[in-house]
């Protein structure tokens, strides 16, 4: 029996910084509203026409993670690519990263679990490594939100929150089962699928159909979010799934060296922090700088925490996420 362990992390953010004041020029919003309700001060948006896509950003994050892991692309046995904004409808972005990395043949899978995508990716990597089937797995989370948001006042409840970027992790086989990923806990609840969703274009809303209707009121091709419902479920599920992980491993909340929550809203992270009575050093947040980057948020945050020396060998690290689906999950590891 093996464990899996993260041995390299990487990130990539587009250069283009968009502040709350920049958004206030496009819609009826304010720095005060966004800061107070979400904690976000700025986010990154891909400049249209640049070479940045989920796959190219994921590729750059992956190269950084590989270098830090001391591995070459050819060492990777499996690529897992988590995104809700893939480059193409099909094929998935995983195969595009495989091409960019120059790996001639290996499995490359896309994970469609939105904000929980990276945790699902870690869990999937962990299962393949634990069984001995694969040794080195690359998990990427990358998003291009800005290309598909409604930057008018009509879309302000969603468009001020989300940002673009990518993060990546390299996991490898760990023979010391006291180290690495100790447990992962995954959930979905499809009953709430439409509460945070993008309905069309899809097989239910084909592009020719949308174009033929030519309905100026039709905004089904923009993401929809019932913010308050999502918020209420998020605080409950975050707490449950972190607790489940703590109990499974016999840890107390006080044992956590670092909790890296999905960066959905600073208020959600603060609620969770308070609930578990964690001090500021035990929780990592960077939503202020990047907004909510969905599947990329945890790997970007974990990369920065590691770069800042906040994750050290032997530390007990907890990752947790909640989002569209609804989906949620946690991963507990000893670094
Ligand atoms: O990644 C995981 C998924 N996402 C989340 O976890 C998000 C969870 N939800 C939230 O974070 C919060 O619900 C939001 C930040 C999205 C919204 O905050 P809220 O406190 O729930 O606001 P609200 O939607 O109830 O809207 C309050 C008011 C409304 O105006 P009225 O009806 O009271 O006049 C909105 O129209 O704020 C208005 N509003 C805005 N005003 C200025 C909504 N968006 C904006 C905006 N700027 N950007």
Q: Sheet bearing the most strands, described?
A: 5 strands, mixed
Major beta sheet, strand line-up? 1-7-6-4-5
Number of strands: 13
If you compute it from the alpha carbons, what radius of gyration comes out, rounded to the nearest whole angstrom? 19 Å
Distance between the termini: 18 Å
Q: Helix proportion of residues, in percent?
A: 25-40%
Report the total helices.
11
Number of domains: 2
Bound molecules: oxa(dethia)-CoA
Q: Output the CATH homologous superfamily of the largest domain.
A: Thiolase/Chalcone synthase
Q: In the CATH hierarchy, what is the class of the largest domain?
A: Alpha Beta
**CATH-level-2 architecture of the largest domain:** 3-Layer(aba) Sandwich
Mean pLDDT: 97
Low-confidence stretches: none
- SSE string, helix = H, strand = E? EEHHEHEHEHEHEEEHEHEHHHEE
Question: Which helices and strands appear, and what pairs or packs with what?
Answer:
Layout: E1 3-12, E2 17-19, H1 20-24, H2 31-38, E3 42-44, H3 54-69, E4 78-82, H4 93-101, E5 108-111, H5 117-130, E6 136-143, H6 156-159, E7 165-174, E8 180-188, E9 196-197, H7 207-213, E10 224-225, H8 227-249, E11 258-261, H9 266-275, H10 287-290, H11 297-307, E12 316-323, E13 327-334
Parallel strand pairs: 4-5, 4-6, 11-12
Antiparallel strand pairs: 1-7, 2-3, 6-7, 8-13, 9-10, 12-13
Helix pairs in contact: 3-4, 8-9
Descriptive terms for the model:
binds oxa(dethia)-CoA, Peroxisomal Thiolase, Chain A, domain 1, 13 strands, 11 helices, alpha/beta, 335 residues, globular, four-stranded mixed sheet, single chain
